[in-house]
Amino acid sequence: MQWYTYILECDDQSYYLGITNNLLRRTILHNQKKGSKYLINKLPIKLVYFEKLVEKSEARKREIQLKGWSRAKKEKLIKKITMNFLDFLFPRRCVSCKRIGDYFCLKCLSKIEFITRPICPTCGRLSIGGMTHPRCRTAYGIDGLFALACYKGPIREAIHLLKYKFVRDIGEALISLFISCYPQTLPQFDLLVPVPLHKKREKERGFNQSLLLAELIGKSLSIPVKDNILARTRLTKPQVNLNVEERKVNLRAAFDCQVKADIREKIVGLVDDVATTRSTLIECAKVLKRNGVKKVWGLVLAHG
Ligand SMILES: [Zn+2]
Ligand SMILES: [Zn+2]
Q: N or C end: fewer C-beta atoms under 10 angstroms in the chain?
């Protein structure tokens, strides 16, 4: 874990006001533009920058090094500003315990089961880096899978809020976690393609959560997103109540590739929120590859 002190400037004097870890830092930077000024307790406060420190104890030391103020005054001010500043930064509730703060409080963040042992998207067994095993490879098969976490606990709750309660902002919180864990070993994607919803279902829901996630990932990693490539041509039953075999049948010929010229020889990241049995990813990869795509990796927030 990397630790940072964050610095706030108040009346043109600098103060070190706290320590935070990498995940929180990302969330803060995501919400607050560097150098923006805020009025907190009628004081103009500016978030100046984050200073990276390897040692937590060093960060703690810096935290109390304040210049030009009496100790009592400093402590009073810091306490006041820190509390208000944090309230100001995180006027949200934790998806899991509902505590006011961010969408993931530190306690619930620590409950998330991040995927540390990736699996082969075809057979579901352990595989280095999430690559499809050589023995599982087929001509139109998927090439690999990166999933952020297991589909349970706070991640499951967050995805549910995003999908069914239309809390779009949670998408950002989820993607900032996704990006902070994104492995350098993944291929350089030429484009991101979201798993499509059927037009009718998209209309019911109001938006396609996979497109939203793809756009956020694309923005972070500077990869173009194309949502006109794949289409869901058949209104399939919800996969939730089906077993593995039924899911495969349900998805047969459910997808179609529409813009073929743009994707020849491309390396594609296929984005979805959850891959429970991975059958949707496998089906989409097949369609993409039949239409000339060179490589397809699944990029999902969670799998079952
Ligand atoms: Zn919580
Ligand atoms: Zn395999």
A: N
Tell me if 202 sits within 8 A of 208, measured CB to CB. Answer: yes
Residue 181 belongs to a domain: yes
| pLDDT tens digits, one per residue of 44-94 | 555 555 556 556 666 556 555 544 556 666 566 556 555 555 555 545 678
CA 293 to ligand 2 centroid distance, Å? 21
Q: How far is the CA of 226 from the centre of ligand 2 (A)?
A: 28
* Residue-wise burial string across 22-42, b where 16 or more C-beta atoms lie within 10 A, e elsewhere: ebbbbbbeebeeeeeeeebee
Task: Report the separation in Å between the CA atom of 131 and the middle of ligand 2, taken as the mean of its atom positions.
Answer: 8
| CATH for 239 | 3.40.50
Radius of gyration of the chain (CA): 22
Q: How many domains is the chain built from?
A: 2
Say yes or no: 64 and 149 in one domain: no
| Statement to judge: residues 81 and 134 lie in one domain | no
Place of tokens 């891959």: 275
- The ligand minimizing its distance to the Cα of 128 is 2
Output the six-digit token pair for 259. Answer: 């813009």
Tokens encoding 203? 């209309």
Check whether residue 135 and residue 198 sit in a common domain. Answer: yes
Provide the domain limits for residue 39.
3-89
Q: Which ligand does the CA of 119 lie closest to?
A: 2
Query: For the chain, how many residues are written?
Result: 304
Separation CA 175–CA 182 (nearest Å): 10
